[in-house]
């Protein structure tokens, strides 16, 4: 079954084992199942009622609100996360929770396709997983409402020739995925961890991105020098026709990855249907 990697962590949904830099982090069974559900639905809001049915589906009588809050707190403690300034798990008031960090799926041999297939508005997302993953897929598939849009964020290309700025370009890319997911609040799906999106720009193929990821939009980025500063270009492209919808241009300095990602979301957001409050 697939292991999930995010930040310094990797998680095995089948065993519930969480590791940080290869060192096991203690996590009890129910919080581990909760983390697995949030990761499987990453980018989507998982409702509290859905989690209740997943964690206590055997008729066990518990103080649900208190027990779920405790399980969420245990997961956040294991990840070193904060509800006030979340990096991994965001609380959506009166609705549920959302895993907002970029995550990668590491499949065992043989490799299997794990990208979600978006079907009609009334269908579910389908993961072609191994037999061992079928139970988890069945448990979480019904939680996820299908998205009208899939937005693919390609790795921003460092065109400066300075390898030091590779990390800057990667940081902007990953933070853009997280911030766009949070700003969208379930209105669309965002994907940035597929192999086709992590290639250098010269090897990126928009037709392949559209066909394999079922994406309606792609964001391609460039990092360039602008004198002593850094210029970022973010191209929003409609697929499959490959039409430029908007280009965001900004100049910034090293260390401004978070601010840069938020400015890109604010500029491109209206073209993706985000309300004004999500772009402030």
Molecular structure report:
The structure is a single chain. With 280 residues, the chain is of the alpha+beta class. It folds into two domains: 3-122, Winged helix-like DNA-binding domain superfamily/Winged helix DNA-binding domain (Arc Repressor Mutant, subunit A, Orthogonal Bundle), CATH 1.10.10.10; 150-273, Rossmann fold (3-Layer(aba) Sandwich), CATH 3.40.50.10070. The protein has seven helices and 14 strands. It has helices at residues 29-40, 48-55, 64-79, 134-141, 164-184, 206-213, 257-268; strands spanning 3-6, 9-12, 17-20, 23-25, 45-47, 89-92, 96-99, 104-106, 150-153, 157-158, 189-191, 217-226, 229-238, 243-252. Strands 9, 10, 11, 12, 13 and 14 form a six-stranded mixed β-sheet that branches. A five-stranded antiparallel β-sheet has the order 4-3-2-1-8, covered by helices on one side. The radius of gyration is 19 Å and the shape is globular. The relative contact order is 0.12.
What CATH first level of the largest domain would be assigned? Alpha Beta
> The CATH topology of the largest domain, please?
Rossmann fold
- The second-level CATH architecture of the largest domain is 3-Layer(aba) Sandwich
Average predicted confidence as pLDDT? 80
How many beta-strand segments? Answer: 14
Q: How much is the radius of gyration in Å? A: 19 Å
How many strands, what sense, and barrel or not for the largest sheet?
A: 6 strands, mixed
Strand percentage, roughly? Answer: 15-25%
Number of domains: 2
Q: Tell me the distance between the termini.
A: 40 Å
Q: Runs with pLDDT <50, length 5+?
A: 109-135, 137-147
Percent of residues in helices? 25-40%
């Amino acid at each position: 079954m697939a292991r999930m990697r995010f930040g310094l962590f990797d998680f095995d949904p089948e065993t519930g084992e969480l590791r940080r830099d290869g060192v096991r982090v203690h996590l009890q069974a129910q919080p581990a199942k909760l983390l697995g559900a949030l990761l499987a639905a990453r980018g989507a809001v998982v409702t509290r009622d859905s989690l209740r049915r997943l964690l206590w589906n055997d008729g066990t009588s518990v103080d649900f609100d208190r027990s779920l809050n405790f399980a969420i707190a245990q997961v956040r403690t294991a990840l070193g996360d904060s509800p006030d300034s979340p990096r991994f798990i965001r609380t959506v008031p009166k609705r549920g929770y959302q895993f907002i960090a970029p995550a990668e799926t590491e499949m065992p041999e043989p490799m299997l396709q794990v990208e979600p297939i978006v079907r009609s508005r009334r269908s579910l997302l389908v993961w072609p997983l191994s037999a061992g993953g079928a139970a988890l897929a069945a448990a979480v598939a019904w939680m996820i409402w299908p998205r009208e849009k899939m937005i693919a964020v390609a790795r921003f290309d460092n065109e400066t020739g300075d390898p030091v700025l590779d990390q800057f370009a990667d940081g902007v890319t990953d933070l853009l995925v997280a911030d766009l997911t949070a700003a969208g609040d379930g209105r669309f799906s965002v994907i940035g961890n597929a192999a086709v999106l992590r290639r250098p720009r010269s090897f990126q193929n928009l037709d392949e991105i559209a066909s394999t990821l079922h994406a309606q939009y792609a964001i391609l980025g460039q990092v360039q020098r602008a004198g002593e500063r850094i210029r970022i270009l973010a191209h929003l492209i409609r697929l499959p026709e490959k039409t430029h919808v908007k280009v965001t241009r900004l100049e910034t300095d090293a260390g401004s990855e978070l601010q840069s990602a938020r400015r890109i979301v604010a500029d491109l957001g209206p073209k993706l249907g985000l309300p004004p409050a999500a772009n402030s």
